[in-house]
Write a structure and sequence with these properties.
The chain is of the alpha/beta class and 430 residues long. The chain has two domains: 4-20 and 272-355 and 386-429, Alpha-Beta Complex (Aspartate Aminotransferase, domain 1), CATH 3.90.1150; 24-268, Type I PLP-dependent aspartate aminotransferase-like (Major domain) (Aspartate Aminotransferase, domain 2, 3-Layer(aba) Sandwich), CATH 3.40.640. The chain has 13 helices and 14 strands. The protein has a seven-stranded mixed sheet, sandwiched between helices. Strands 10-12-14-13 form a four-stranded antiparallel sheet. The protein has a three-stranded antiparallel sheet with strand order 7-6-11, with no helix packed on it. It is globular and about 75 Å long.
Length: 430
Amino acid sequence: MQLAINGGKKLRDKPFPAYNTIGKEEEEAVLRVLRSGKLSTYIGSWHDDFYGGTEVRALEKEWAEYFGAKHAISVNSATSGLYAAVGALGITAGDEVIVSPYTMSASATAILLYGGIPVFADIEEEFFCIDPKSVESKITSKTKAIMAVDIFGQPSDYRALREIADKHNLKIIEDCAQAPYAKLDGKFAGTLGDIGIFSLNYHKHIHSGEGGIVVTNSDELAFKIQLIRNHAEVVIGAKGYKEKSELHNMLGFNYRMTEIEASIARVQLLKLKDLVEQRVENVLYMEERFKKMPFLKVPPIRDGAAHSYYVHILVFDEKIAGVHRNRFIDAVKAELPPTIMRDDSAVLLSYGYVKPLYLQPLYQEKICFGEYPFNHTEREYKKGDCPVCEDMHYNKIITHELMRPGMSRDDMDDVVRAFEKVWENRGELS
């Protein structure tokens, strides 16, 4: 049977079903807010409404209780949450923060915003999160924090990272945007560092369109995050701040979540457990089929961890396949249709994830705010800095989203059959 990439008939034309978690409950929540007439009650000065309105505060209370955190602070995006977290730690010009290179760009640009220097540590070959051994090798007298990313839905190795952080008096920021409801040693991802950041962006497990939640058990860090969220510089005087150190990084922003977004997020939170369990069930179903393909490896789950599968990862073996991963996946994609509501993304299947961040022009040219903050460091960013990450990205990792809730077993069977068809006819790709 000729491959579609070479002019043959596609294995499937019918679009895959949408991942749509919005229902009547969310509609009713939005209408409740609209009828109240209060779409936001934030005031950017010292006042009871400095902390937001009824829906925002209810969401924060419910989120903190759900995940077992002392504080939950809503923001308008996980990116804003990352920025506020770095600011709350007091990162300043020339301070170094060790971060994964295999993550969305904001994990590192949050560091640059405050004049800090991102230092990229390599990733683990099996789990793809930041490698604690690489982290420890990057620590200097300028290191102030570790930014760990629970990539693809699996928690980082916080046992080892906490040991390193305590040894060197460092804080841990946990970027948990892709791993809500994941766990390590019985604790929820997002609560495993000093500050955790969740995402409510539209293509995450649950969403409010845009939005994010920051959690912490520290009263001091929570209040600083609340200040940064809402024009800190006009509030600190009224709060009686006197010490210079307390004012550090207290230039504030408007990172505030609206009442409508908060009302949607409250309903979505109630759906999280079931949605993650469906992802796990779907992944297990597909992996039983993928395991029979000799050129694919199903990655393990960390001991003591529970995965929440933002995306599903497969590892490609070019030696067995006899063709490069990119060529193979292009052929699989040619056999499959796009997904409803994500038509502009074509087939939700890709090779690699994101280009290692240090290879982006920002780091190669070392230009951010002019030369700042790179003029505070002699560090260079070059190819080969994180060899595991580069090998995984350019040669081995396959990512796909075709295991989301809404995908039937027949739908998932078609995905697997597309891989099988290309494997059986791989000679056409030589």
